[in-house]
Amino acid sequence: MDTEELKLNIPLEQQRQTVKGAARILGMNRTTFIRNYLQTGKVSKSVYDQGKEYIDLLELVRVFGAEKVLSGVRDLVHDGRNELRATGSDVSEHVRTHSESAIELKVENASLKAEIQGLKNLLEERQARIQEKESLLQKQQENLTRMQYLLEDKQKVKVTTEKHSSFLAKLKHLFS
């Protein structure tokens, strides 16, 4: 999900985290974060105009969930170690005061959107399964109808064969 689309009430560059900032939000060592999440591709980095790499807050929400990211952001805000800017500079008092609630709402919104998308995907999968089962049921119905025709034809042949056998027996009796 594009961060610009969410229109967080904090400047876009503050939504961009350095590797160190992302690791601190998650409460883990920078090296561990790189080894376990960046190098494995579980978390992706982006590049903005100046060619600098960053990790978007919403990418962290996607991977770790809203609660963990919000908790980490709150801890950093309350501890005075807030590194919401990709440049690593201090966040102004205005941003500190308003960003926590804005981030919380936007992260919750992103989490709900992800949940809705998951439910939509589940619904699509179930609808596809229903269509497959309906198709299978229709084929089985067609096979049943064919089998009924075959049984009717077999019964007609049996009756016809019995009539012919009876007729042949009478002829045989007449000529014997």
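The record above closes out task 2.4. Task 2.5 opens with a second protein, given below.
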Amino acid sequence: MTFTDACYSAFPMSTPASFQFQKKNPKAVISTPLGDIELRFFTDDAPRHVESFLNLVRLKFFDGLSFHRVIPGFIIQSGDPLSTNPDRSLHGTGGPGFSLPPETSDRPHRRGTLAMAKVPRNEDSTRDIADSGSQFFICVEDQGSLDRRYSVFGKVVKGMDVVDQIVAGPTDDRDNPLNPIRIKIRAEE
């Protein structure tokens, strides 16, 4: 059984018409060596993204991964299972084996916005319009150029000081932190 099959059998994705959260305001906490980042989700705007993210959290998919893309004035990004690979050139190219259809909205990409990255592209193609199944980013500054192009599915409600510490660290020429910042995510529904 593939990882994707395991995800869908353990936590099947519901259709939008039948989708209901047990609690109206699910949250998650990203723990890092620098502190915690608390997230709230926009269940009405991006229900499939929220559901998929929380399913991966329950499966502990994110635990041990790192922030593999850190760009001052822009974003910090994580969710790539290849970020544990010693070959840093692979960081940012992996996923859970599935993508998500975009759920774009009029929610702006402001400081603290949580959004889903796009499917990594091959060297010989343009960026896929589908969203990654697991790679997410947090805006460290307002990013109006991303509005209505990426699926916003939540925001940071506590811990932007931790985000600021992460983005301030030294990186290599691929924007990958020189000292890996490993994460563990827990859901609080």
